[in-house]
Design brief:
Two copies of one chain form a homodimer.
Chain A (H helix, E strand, L loop, with lengths): L3 H8 L3 H9 L6 H14 L5 H7 L5 E6 L6 H15 L3 E6 L4 H11 L4 E6 L6 H9 L4 E6 L10 E3 L2 H14 L5 E5 L8 H13 L9 E3 L4 H14 L5 E4 L2 H13 L9 E6 L2 H5 L5 E4 L2 H16 L10 H6 L6 E3 L4 E3 L15
Chain lengths: 356, 356
């Protein structure tokens, strides 16, 4: 493959002039420009992306850190991110951390600021200190689905009101008449799904219900995790008539458990999740869930990252902390509110006389 | 971030010497080596991956072309590829072609040989001419799941015997006693699933059965495609007792259709697919399928690609064509044979007196 230098030699100009012509920058006379373009044509020169990125002090990819590409949410999200990234001429490198902060750190150290000019982070279980170090090295970082808009993370982020999502899911079950609801939290109790759980508790309080500890299980954020937790909940209290899971995967696991226990969903057990991943739509019965604006969040995240890369001035925060410190707070974009999507996995509980 | 040149200046040596020290190459005296390492330490220099790749005439990523990252097979495959790639210090760029040869060509033109030193191709609907052009530009190409080991593609590939997979799926249904089997081909009739269909026909012939055109549907290789095709097949012939789909996604769609028609799987309708993606294991009933060696194929593909990148001598083909032309045929690695995995979606048909 011919190099920029060979094009320059062929055209009798400096490499910098060739670069200026190809980038439409600097002052280059019409005759020189013609000579350069002829040399490009004659040699079949293609601009070297990595070389150009180096020359300009930036790299042509962005990195997306995900906890597991095998979790169907991330491919859907990655697809939306990639669409947005491609629209701005960026390639997407997907890095699987497998929820391992060490592996995440290795990725960040090796690619941020070199291969990739910016990093999008989903719930990849990364150490915030590592992310701040990445920023300090010159590669902007954006958290893609920050779950608590009222509690900013101190890094640029796209926030989704997941507490509202939990509240909508809970209120739906309670409005149908459910009083004994098993809750599956797909993270540590204080982990990333805590806001979703808090929203469910909000709904319970508004309906005058308790959320006894015996009705709450912490589980792996997987189909299998939801399966095991559901069996455990129903063994502990067979009078449970509904399951709220903080994510669609464990909700799908709850439906599996119901099937294996011979329970009909929704006649014997209602199930509701959060997110609206594709398998939620494709399951039978189709899963009632609270849809979060995945594609919109992806677009907002890419836009925000690009603005940070291009050094657009940070919007000053309006909060008093920021004003007092004189430091603008990192930007936060709030995505649209989650929405309840009622499908076939929820219904009113059977009346007591028909209960198991 | 300090550059190699700054390290060189600090140590009073040439950039080439710094590079040699960091790469443990060339002859460098002990005193010089010590000075360079001190300068690296003092300036906090980190080797610039893209720069190093450029300097060495190679790039540190490989690209994986997939037709849709939203199809659950590809994330599973990408995960296996990434594991293998990371083991050799490569990063993986996943490119979604969305089955659009134009988009695929754009990716190939922009990244092959520049950002990425080699390309892995799954069923991405790419033009072979584009792939050969990519090879000619110096970026090796490996087809990851070639479906017809007896009909090599003329490009390096990992082959999986998908005709055998179709034969195993068909034989399983026939051994259970099914005689009226609906067939869903998840590609054009002559497309990538043709070998799987041929294998089914092999099994039918061996069992003395016809495969009437009225029992075969071509469909999109999606859950929805399988759903529609199944409803269509059962409307056309309600006496069908089993569905063979050339892929798990349409097989899962067949189970959805059965659920919506009030048919019990497997009592009223048996369903079998091919691949063994995660949702096949997670569906209820769990899907009987023919598992293909996904992880093994990913590892073989990465190994083959690395050998091509590193310029290992091509193994000469034993075929007479290759011998006659004097050109070694592109290498083909054959992955292990597919295996039938019997789960809960297949059973003997109900006897005629109980049939619908």
């Amino acid at each position: 493959m011919p190099t920029l230098s060979e094009v320059a030699r062929h055209a009798g100009v400096t490499p910098a002039t060739v670069s200026n012509v190809l980038r439409s920058r600097g002052r280059v006379g019409e005759e020189t420009r013609r000579r350069v373009l002829e040399a490009v044509e004659a040699l079949g020169y293609r601009p070297h992306l990595a070389a150009r990125a180096l020359a300009e002090g930036r790299a042509p990819t962005i990195a997306l850190m995900v906890s597991s590409i095998a979790n169907p949410f991330y491919p859907e999200f990655a697809l939306a991110v990639e669409r947005a990234a491609r629209a701005s001429g960026h390639f997407l490198i997907i890095c699987n951390t497998n929820e391992d902060p060490q592996l995440g750190r290795a990725y960040l150290e090796q690619i941020a600021g070199t291969l990739s000019e910016g990093v999008l982070v989903t719930n990849a279980n990364l150490d915030f200190a590592d992310l701040r170090l990445t920023e300090a090295r010159g590669a902007p970082v954006v958290l893609c689905m920050w779950e608590r808009p009222l509690d900013p993370p101190g890094l640029p982020c796209v926030a989704v009101d997941f507490r509202l999502a939990g509240q909508l899911a809970g209120a739906h079950l309670m409005e149908l008449g459910h009083r004994r609801i098993g809750v599956i939290v797909g993270s540590k109790v204080s982990g990333i799904h805590a806001a979703r759980y808090d929203g469910f508790v909000d709904a319970a309080r508004a309906a005058g219900l308790d959320v006894p500890a015996a009705h709450v299980r912490q589980a792996a954020d997987t189909v299998h995790g939801g399966y095991t937790a559901t069996r455990d909940l129903l063994e502990g209290d067979p009078s449970i008539t509904a399951i709220f899971a903080t994510n669609d995967l464990p909700a799908l696991g709850a439906m599996q458990a119901a099937a294996d226990l011979g329970l009909d969903v929704p006649r014997d057990l209602s199930v509701v999740g959060i997110t609206d991943i594709l398998p939620a739509r494709e399951s039978r019965p189709a899963l009632t869930t609270v849809a979060v604006p995945t594609a919109e969040a992806a677009e907002l995240a890419v836009t925000l990252l690009r603005e940070l890369i291009e050094g657009a001035p940070h919007e000053a925060a309006t909060g008093t902390d920021a004003a007092a410190s004189g430091q603008p707070a990192p930007r936060m974009c709030l995505a649209s509110a989650p929405k309840l999507v009622v499908r076939a996995s929820t219904a009113a509980p059977r009346t007591q006389s028909f209960a198991r």
